[in-house]
Amino acid sequence: MKIRSIITLLCIVLIASASGQGNVLPLTGKAARLYEQKNYTEAKTVIEQSISGEGKEDSYSWHVRGHIYKEIYKGQDLAVKKTAKEREVAVESFERCLKLDAEKKFLEWNKTSLRFLGSTYWNDAVSLMEIRDRKDLPMAEDFFHKYLRIMESIEIQSDLNQRKRDFYKAYATSNRKIIEDLRNTMADPTAYSVELERVMDSHKKALAIDNNDYGSNYNYAINLYNEAAYRIENIPAEADLTHIILEQEGCIAIFEEALPIAQKAENLKPGRIEILKALRAIYLGLNNYEAFDKYNDLIREKQGEQIIQKRSQDALNKEIFKNRLNVD
Amino acid sequence: MKRLIILLLVPLFFLSAADTPQLDEKNTNAIIKSSYVYNFCKLISWPQSKNNGNFIIGVLGDPGLYKQLISKYSNKLIGNQPIEIIQLLGTEQMPNLHVLFVSRSRVTNMPAISNKTQKAHTLVIAEHPDGIKNGATLNFVVIDNQLKFEVGETNASDYGLTIGITLKSLAYKVVK
């Protein structure tokens, strides 16, 4: 028997005895024994009978139910595991046990199991974002919400805000990559509007958590700029004036949205060449020649400084090398 | 118990620096202007004498616009005339142009070339607050961050050009 299973089994048996459950309800006791025998299908049937009758308000019965469903979930085939209902039932059972367990006899055990199930939701969200299947990706956010809800319900002390921010940055990245792939393969650039909405929405959520995060501000500004620039670049050659005027209006609105976000990023990390370039591009998008020229000059100045720095470093390296040769 | 803790630590590996969006910088101003210029060419009539040979567009300054016109419109026609695009380095030798775009940095050249362009029925497009005053028939202006254009009606008739109704109706301003 695997160590994991032994631990789980011990949990149930120990809890039952340590919590003074001398008079375990008959059906619940039967379900626990079936669980011990790894007969989860039968255990599930019996525990369902228990909680729909004698064990309805019994915290231990819900606890046993949680373990049974958790094991069934863990045994699921990978192809269906992500959407397995058993995981939700397990979570619901442990949470119900927490509510009924006035004496907090099962508190730590419930928390441990919920933490485990919560982390499976997190892992599934991460895996979906890595795979980037257009159809399945939205599930990542659902899983993340489930993860969050569980972690909040067991009052996890770690910084969930940082995790939220990181999730939304990653979610924006995954959706953006789908858009980039679609742009290379699609004739109709508006067909990715759902993904685009998700990118922007994720950036807004990341910023709502931490408005002073440079990466969140920079990424959002760049995504906005790139979208407007892409739309302008793809104005058909034969577009008439009305089309051009309307498309321009839409893109100017996007550039206007990007500007304060890029400015905020620059305030957070002044003088970084990447953000100076972004501001230059946005100002050109806004047809603000004066500001464009200003940032163009700043970039040249920066690039000049970098060249001088590199040359001095090269000269220094040469000198060190020469000295070494002399010493050797 | 150890396993449970490990599960919680699955990180966002793919959120590395390489995954931050890269700026895809475009000369958006030039792209919009080139689309406008092509439409201007379609919505203006030139005297009969200009309806043969290539349809020549000269660009003075603004190499970005020149590149954009070349990439998007160099294989198009205006009527039956194939478009030819020329980047002008100066104004001393002015070819027989249908259109001359004068960038904001070259606006000082305008008075000197107005005599030549008027004789050649060249549509002069400028992008300066005093563009129309300096002889341009069409002038780009920026209003609320948007690139719009104004029409110099008198200049058009002085240059023998006929401005279509659509162009006038979409202009920010028609200057008499």
General description of the model:
The complex is a heterodimer of chains A (328) and B (176). Chain A is mostly helical and 328 residues long. Chain A folds into two domains: 1-157, Serine Threonine Protein Phosphatase 5, Tetratricopeptide repeat (Alpha Horseshoe); 159-328, Tetratricopeptide repeat domain (Serine Threonine Protein Phosphatase 5, Tetratricopeptide repeat, Alpha Horseshoe). Helices cover 79% and strands 0% of the residues of chain A. In chain A, helix 11 (214-233) runs parallel beside helix 13 (273-285). The radius of gyration of chain A is 29 Å and the shape is elongated. The model of chain A has no long low-confidence stretch (mean pLDDT 89). Chain B is α/β, with parallel strands linked by helices and 176 residues long. Chain B has a single domain (27-88, 95-175), classed as Response regulator (Rossmann fold). In chain B, 31% of the residues lie in helices and 25% in strands. Chain B is built from six helices and ten strands; from the N terminus they run ααββαβββαβββαβαβ. In chain B, the strands form two sheets. Chain B has an eight-stranded mixed beta sheet, sandwiched between helices. Chain B has a two-stranded antiparallel ribbon with strand order 1-9. Chain B is globular and about 75 Å long. Chain B starts with a helix and ends with a strand. Chains A and B meet through helix 7, helix 9, helix 11, helix 12 and helix 13 of A and helix 1, helix 2 and helix 6 of B.
